[in-house]
């Protein structure tokens, strides 16, 4: 494995973990709020609601994994592009970075760039 590949893998893994944790916390909080409406019915307690949410978290991760992967990839490539590491990867011939580095040279890239102030 080359050094550039390890760097890309590390950046993608960091993005995946951060976004997965953020989305799981958000969706688990929403699931807990939905379960909390049943607290007090019969013998359903807060602990039962927390256990239901915790036991459903792995299935939630499986359901959210395509969206997490999409957002993590975009986030990692955006960070690479922001730090100018994508041009270094492109110079070394790493194909994943080369496509991101070439986005700035597209003919329509001037549409979203701000005009230079004079």
Write a compact overview of the structure shown:
The protein has 118 residues and is mainly α. Helix content is 72%, strand content 0%.
Report the radius of gyration as a whole number of Å: 21 Å
* Main sheet record: none
User: From N to C, what is the helix and strand string?
Assistant: HHHH
Number of helices: 4
Return the domain count. 1
Termini, distance in Å?
47 Å
> Tally of extended strands?
0
Descriptive report:
The chain has four helices and no strands. It has one domain. It has helices spanning 3-35, 46-82, 85-92, 95-101. Helix 1 (3-35) packs antiparallel against helix 2 and helix 3 crosses helix 4. It has 118 residues and is mainly α. The model is unreliable at 100-112 (pLDDT under 50). The longest helix has 37 residues, at 46-82.
Protein topology:
Blueprint: H1 3-35, H2 46-82, H3 85-92, H4 95-101
Helix pairs in contact: 1-2, 3-4
Keywords:
118 residues; rod-shaped; mainly alpha
């Amino acid at each position: 494995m080359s050094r550039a590949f390890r760097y890309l893998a590390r950046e993608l893994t960091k993005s995946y973990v951060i976004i997965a944790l953020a989305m799981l916390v958000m969706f688990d909080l929403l699931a807990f709020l939905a379960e909390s409406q049943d607290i007090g019915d019969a013998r359903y307690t807060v602990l039962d609601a927390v256990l239901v949410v915790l036991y459903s978290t792995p299935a939630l991760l499986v359901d959210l994994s395509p969206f997490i992967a999409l957002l993590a990839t975009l986030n990692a490539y955006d960070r690479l592009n922001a730090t100018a590491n994508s041009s270094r990867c492109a110079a070394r011939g790493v194909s994943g970075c080369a496509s991101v580095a070439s986005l700035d040279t597209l003919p329509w890239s001037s549409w979203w760039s701000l005009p230079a102030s004079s």
